[in-house]
Backbone:
């Protein structure tokens, strides 16, 4: 049981940590891709207003947009980096300068999507693209979602992995306990039967319930017990036969000795006959 848990527990911990990190990386990459796509759509919508010199149209579009409170922080700048439209809790104020490296990169015509500090304050996943019209950069779009949202998802995943690990450990413990008992139970039965065989109770047998190695061992032990019982029966029969064979010449010797005592000194001829009988019985023994 302990060996089983020693193998299972580190494996589950490793898988939990690995899956959490993989999910965090995959989620961050997916979020960067989504924010980059959103920034491209917003840039395409803002290009009309900026190309016509009408930033008010961009601001009205942001005010009419639904889901602004729940969505990411978004702001649009002109070609000088001045914020002309913004929405979201973390977006800078309209009219201020967007002092952010990603905005400067977007104004240079590059697209960025990364994880880092936004506006020098909070960590977030962000994306920045240029607003272009006929190859001319008119401004930049910056989209960001704070990492608190990602951290909440990761924390939820960690709890799920933790509970899954606990449940898996409980299941593994139960299975390991059943496995240990299924192995130890027959072995203990064999130990009891072996001790009875050693004590001379050769009629004991082990129940062979399975067709695996333990069942083969139980059948081998039963075969050994049967052979011991057969050999013991042969031994008893041999002792009985030997005692029977010895009993007759011993009785004859006893009779011959009595006869010898009776004739010694009286009849030498009979004494020699009795002595010959004694010699023959001794040779027989």
Residues:
């Amino acid at each position: 049981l302990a060996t089983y848990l020693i193998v299972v527990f580190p494996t589950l911990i490793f898988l939990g940590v690995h899956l959490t990190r993989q999910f965090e990386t995959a989620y961050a990459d997916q979020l960067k891709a989504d924010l980059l796509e959103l920034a491209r759509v917003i840039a395409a919508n803002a290009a009309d207003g900026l190309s016509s010199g009408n930033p008010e149209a961009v601001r009205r579009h942001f005010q009419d947009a639904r889901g602004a409170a729940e969505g990411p922080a978004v702001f649009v700048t002109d070609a000088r980096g001045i914020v002309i439209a913004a929405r979201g809790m973390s977006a800078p104020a309209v009219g201020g300068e967007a002092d952010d490296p990603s905005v400067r990169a977007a104004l240079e015509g590059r697209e960025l999507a990364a994880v880092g500090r936004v506006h020098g304050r909070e960590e977030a996943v962000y994306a920045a693209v240029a607003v272009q019209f006929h190859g001319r950069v008119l401004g930049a779009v910056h989209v960001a979602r704070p990492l608190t949202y990602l951290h909440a998802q990761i924390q939820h995943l960690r709890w799920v992995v933790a509970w899954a690990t606990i449940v898996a450990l409980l299941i593994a413990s139960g299975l390991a306990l059943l496995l240990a008992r299924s192995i130890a139970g027959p072995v203990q039965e064999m130990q009891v039967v072996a001790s009875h065989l050693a004590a001379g109770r050769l009629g004991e047998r082990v129940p062979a319930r399975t067709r695996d190695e333990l069942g083969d061992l139980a059948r081998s032990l039963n075969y050994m017990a049967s052979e011991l019982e057969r050999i013991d029966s042969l031994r008893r029969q041999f002792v009985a036969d030997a005692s029977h064979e010895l009993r007759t010449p011993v009785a004859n010797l006893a009779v011959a000795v009595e006869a010898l005592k009776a004739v010694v000194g009286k009849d030498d001829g009979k004494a020699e006959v009795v002595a010959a009988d004694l010699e023959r019985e001794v040779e027989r023994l």
